[in-house]
Amino acid sequence: MDARTHHDHAGHAHSHDTVPVPLEHGAVYTCPMHPEIRQDHPGNCPKCGMSLEPVMPALDEARNPELLDFQRRFWWTLPLTVVVAVLAMAGHRLGWFEMATQSWIELVLTAPIVLWAGWPFFVRGAQSVLNRSPNMWTLIGLGTGSAFVYSVVATVSPQVFPASFVSMGRVSVYFEAAAVIISLTLLGQMLELGARAQTSAAIRSLLGLAPKTARRISADGHEADVPLAHVHVGDLLRVRPGEKIPTDGAVVEGRSAVDESMLTGEPLPVTKRVGDKLIGATLNTSGALVMRSERVGSATVLSQIVQMVALAQRSRAPMQRMADQVAGYFVVGVVAAALLTFLGWGYLGPEPSWVHGLINAVAVLIIACPCALGLATPMSIMVATGRGATQGVLFRDAAAIENLRKVDTLIVDKTGTLTEGRPTFERAIGHGSYPEDEVLRLAASLDQGSEHPLAAAIVAAARQQGLALDKPDRFDSASGIGVRGWVDGEGLALGNTVLMQQIGVDTSPLAAEAEALRAQGASVMFLAVDTALAGLLAVSDPIKATTVDALASLRRANIRVVMATGDGLTTARSVGQRLGIEEVHGEVKPADKLQLVEQLQAEGRVVAMAGDGINDAPALARADVGIAMGTGTDVAMNSAQLTLVKGDLRGIATARALSVATVANMKQNLAFAFVYNALGIPLAAGLLYPFTGWLLSPMIAALAMSLSSASVIGNALRLRAASIRET
Q1: Residues 229-270: tens digit of each pLDDT
Q2: Which of 248, 324, 397, 413 is catalytic?
Q3: What distance lies between CA 28 and its chain's CA centroid?
């Protein structure tokens, strides 16, 4: 494809006419562990009892009301818990009260802790029984409820207990166990809710990109600033220099350069003229524009990015589904183990055997809470998707995170992926009486009237060399083939061979040089002065500085890289040779890419396909992992499981490394949760007592339960700082 044709095509390759991701209207609440639970009001999950949270966090979202509620319950009752614990441990030594009186004092102090601070836990435990979905709240409710009710009866009616239950002048009570367990559980929930709030920070930072208002032009020409929510499809909006584009649409008046780097990662502003598409939240840098809004609200590119991150954070990984199934059976098994512990100690243990049985059964219920197990994968997924979003890596779902690490073959495009995607002047060659610098000077003078990327590269090179440019006259752009005009009284034409043929210019004297430059990956334009060949100019698309390192990283991961591009085979092979890519396919159409994916899969390969997300939809859908590259509009493609907003190859290496790190993190969390419970339950049940004399207090069990959840959360949050540049 010739120079101008190629770049004109590339500039319009990404259409906005894609199907947007379906979005929810109104607030929708879901469970972080069970995203299939969705409702239009806050509440608790019927499966696990966790509080539901909004699918889409708001930019100005207030602090989580549940977190505030738990903080209030925790801090108001913490002093009571401390006093009860001190009395239980040292009251008989201090001798402040008779032991029977101390039991009543502990009851008065513990009642608000259990009945007020711990009330949400009992509600969740009851819901788990009613919904036949046993979970951690089932165990906490049974454990603390048993300890509290037993202690109340022992205080109010001590005469119903046998004499063997009496110790130090009173029937033994365990108010401190119930109080400390409630306080520690509240602390664990506060830590967890705080960590969950951190995972939505990435979404809020994306939401913060959008402007708050837009300047709307009414039918009578009056202009007024209105809130962005009041903008409708078809409205005319004015965008002044330095302002953000308010919403997705098209230019109807004016010309300007728009910085789209906040969404695409491309640092070079893109020239926008009448008819060109605009993406909301991008920055208008130089000129004034009037645009017509085409997509508003949840249909914009930015909203789709936010929606994709939110959906990915709420999706369930295959590993998580396994953990959920295990947790359900696990709770039933724990209740059975607690019952056996109670009966075993009651009939076989030392006196007071039934007291020992009750306390050890409570310890089993508490230490076996599967909260660490339930948090293991959702926390990793939420942190990983947030981390990826900040680096331009948008996973559509949790399964994509798990699958990407299995990929062993990657098909990539050239332009904008391996290369910069924007031209850089390489050299000029003069013909006849025209030296190289004069060829560059004349071409740059003419191209001052053009805003084409190739023209910008030539003008920039001439100014860098200090050449004096003349103002062009009667400038005309022949779309796709070049430009014509007058400079200093001479008629100039600059373009590809098609333009030269149209005006009758013979390019054969420089044909060999032109072909050699094309073989090196350059785009070639001929310059004619008054229908006589004056020389040629070569502009190339340089390989990105990050590409070599990214390819090296992929090779170290034993990934086979295949280039498939619509560019000419000569240019494609030149780039492939410089990058060490042995398998190169040029002049490839979308159907050919689909065939290539199927061919590699037939060889037993796990294939990732990186395309523009629009023309390559069949291949993206067929690949094991479809990766949408390039502009933010690709987010709308349902065929891709992953979108790399920045559009460079390093993003693929980063995404794969993030996949490997996330799965490893989930496995660590699951292993920790299983091992913790496997070791804790026998100790709590007292199986080691005959050999070691070890018993586990319910308070220590509650502390261990909270620490296990905190460790899983902490391990997941390590992903935010983990190095994911290498696999």
Answers
A1: 889 999 999 998 888 899 999 999 988 878 775 554 344 567
A2: 413
A3: 19
